[in-house]
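User: Show me a protein chain along with its predicted structure.
Assistant: Here is one chain, sequence first, then structure tokens.
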Amino acid sequence: MSTRLACVVFDADRPRSIADFWAELLGWTVTLDRPDQVDVAAPDPDGPELALSFVPSTRAKRGKNRLHLDLASRSLDHQRTRVDEALALGAHPVDIGQGAVPWVVLADPEGNEFCVLEPRAEYVDAGAVAAIVVDTRDHVRLADFWSTASGWPVTRHAAQLTGLRSATGLGSWLEFVHSAQPSPGRCRLSLDLAAFPADDQAAELDRLRAAGATPIDSDRANCLALTDPETNEFRLRWLAHDWSAT
């Protein structure tokens, strides 16, 4: 296995504007600023955080995203501070049926849901982003697929949740949470995998297909677009490769 989980991708109406929101909120920096892509990453180049990547898109958000970010907090005071900071930057509260819960559900200026969590022991060393959360009908099956795709081992099992984490034990969790009816609309957030240039490209594609991925037409250059077993779109980045010949 040679692919790695590279970033969370946001389809954006205004990539630079929404990238600035997330950079300010997380205390991260813009590391790439092009018309077709703006990247935001933790300031420590050796840090365990996944980057956030913002790409222009004209496809509208419909319904709740099936993927969202959970932000960590160190204390209840810190949680309140993070919420206040998010609101000051342009976020707004949203009701997705969460009821009375200890976390706060917000949406960024383009309507993408995220949660500011109360302090939890399992996220104490996760960094600014505690978890990347995916709604799924079958959290065990989808977690197994993404463990195979990314190389992150399954490290947490619960009745309604399965969690993956990098083998280093550092950085954000990737969590799959059972939902009886995940949103049928197209999600504005997705995951990108990256492969190394020297890797066997055909073998890597075959491996993902065998795990349950389905190739689809790519809307971005230098990558292959696929769907996972629950039709969540993701991309495999591979520079200098003509996928039309595959």
